[in-house]
Amino acid sequence: MQKTLVIVLIVVIVALAGILIWQNLGNKISVESNLPQENEQVNSDENAEWKIYTNDKFGYTVEYPFGWHYKDYNDVTIDNVLLSRVVFSDKVLPSDIGKMDPSQSISIWVENRPFAEARTAFLQGPFINTASETIITVDNMQVTKLSGIRKGAKYSSVEVMISKDGKIYTMVGIDSPSVSAAFNRVLSTFKFTK
């Protein structure tokens, strides 16, 4: 009986030791497999595979995701306000901006109207919730970020307004799962070239 107990005890100890060794070896392998191999290059630039859009007319550049499309829509003047629009999307963009699905796009608008007027138009626009306003930094400038939910909309609208040289540069996006992460990364690459 004592012999059987000793044999069972040895088997249990060997089994536990085997499990511990297996777990340690498994953790070591998983950690090592996440390390770069000798000939593998590590890409430290998270936007490395992004494309660059440059607007020479208004003097700015942004990066946008590889595989996305962009379309420059013709400048229009509404109530003596020049409006220039470029739209980025992971979908092919229609020739008519009115047929575009804003929940799947990021737009940059350039307007020649006073900042206070553009800000008021957003804050007093057709929102069901009170719009929020925060100050953030873009291209080393303090700028205004506005958010609010339009009537009938599923997601909140986000507008970042940058005032420079008498123009308002507004990046517009929808806080939807398909756009919000890209919006923040595109915004982080916005730079003035003039």
Fold and architecture overview:
The protein has helices spanning 2-34, 115-123, 180-188; strands spanning 51-55, 60-64, 69-78, 81-89, 105-111, 132-138, 141-148, 157-164, 167-174, 191-192. It has 194 residues and is of the alpha+beta class. It folds into two domains: 1-42; 51-192, Mog1/PsbP, alpha/beta/alpha sandwich (Protein Transport Mog1p, Chain A), CATH 3.40.1000. Strand 1 (51-55) and strand 2 form a beta hairpin. The longest helix has 33 residues, at 2-34. The chain is elongated and about 100 Å long.
Task: Explain briefly what this protein structure is.
The chain has helices at 2-34, 115-123, 180-188, and strands at residues 51-55, 60-64, 69-78, 81-89, 105-111, 132-138, 141-148, 157-164, 167-174, 191-192.
Mean pLDDT across all residues, rounded?
75
Number of helices: 3
Order of helices and strands: HEEEEEHEEEEHE
Strand content: 35-45%
Across the major sheet, the strand order is 3-4-5-9-8-7-6
Task: State the total count of DSSP E strands.
Answer: 10
CATH superfamily caption of the largest domain: Mog1/PsbP, alpha/beta/alpha sandwich
Instruction: Give the number of domains.
Output: 2
CATH fold title of the largest domain:
Protein Transport Mog1p, Chain A
Alpha-carbon distance between the termini?
91 Å
Gyration radius, rounded:
27 Å
| CATH architecture assignment name of the largest domain | 3-Layer(aba) Sandwich
Topology:
Blueprint: H1 2-34, E1 51-55, E2 60-64, E3 69-78, E4 81-89, E5 105-111, H2 115-123, E6 132-138, E7 141-148, E8 157-164, E9 167-174, H3 180-188, E10 191-192
Antiparallel strand pairs: 1-2, 2-10, 3-4, 4-5, 5-9, 6-7, 7-8, 8-9
